[in-house]
């Protein structure tokens, strides 16, 4: 059962309640075989302690025992470099209104500032964005992003990896990948790409 709206704790304005409800109904889906539902695991956004800023538990995704050491999938945008996130690729699902809200608030505007320049290109028809970055980076403005897909398009069974390939710009993660893969091709490498191909997001 979807938890009730907690506007006071999550600072959800009335105009964004419906989008927040849709976000709470979203789920991360893991399939060890992308062509089959055998072994499928569904992780609901609503089950996160903080649905707007939480980490999915990838340890239950058993195909790769080191899944959560290589890949991190979260809600909310990246705000600071954390020692525990080193060498992990971050895939983040973020409602547009969260970044807009934080840019307006003097208490959080500096933290959200690395995302300011892309907001003018983020359509109102696309309430959720996907951001991909690397935990080793100090610079918060280094990220790849997809902000041009509707919630229906994000839910069309394309993997998170495919969504990354569809992103407006994926030069930053190409650089990280050259370090992580040590010369191997993206398709054959056994790091974040192979793992991200096993996940989809559904709204």
What layout of secondary structure does this protein have?
Elements: H1 7-10, H2 17-24, E1 27-30, E2 41-44, H3 67-70, E3 71-75, E4 89-95, H4 96-104, H5 109-112, E5 128-134, E6 144-146, H6 151-154, H7 160-165, H8 171-181, H9 192-196, E7 199-202
Parallel strand pairs: 3-4
Antiparallel strand pairs: 1-2, 1-7, 4-5, 5-6
Structure notes:
The chain is 27% helix and 17% strand. The protein is built from nine helices and seven strands; from the N terminus they run H-H-E-E-H-E-E-H-H-E-E-H-H-H-H-E. A four-stranded mixed sheet has the order 3-4-5-6. The chain has a three-stranded antiparallel sheet with strand order 2-1-7. The longest helix is centred in the C-terminal third of the chain and has 11 residues, at 171-181. The protein is globular, with a radius of gyration of 16 Å. 33% of the residues are buried.
Class of secondary structure makeup: alpha+beta
Helical content (DSSP H or I, runs of 4+):
25-40%
Radius of gyration: 16 Å
- The strand count comes to 7
Strand order of the largest sheet: 3-4-5-6
Briefly characterize the structure.
By secondary structure, the protein is of the alpha+beta class.
Keywords:
single chain, 203 residues, alpha+beta, four-stranded mixed beta sheet, three-stranded antiparallel beta sheet, 9 helices, globular, disordered N terminus
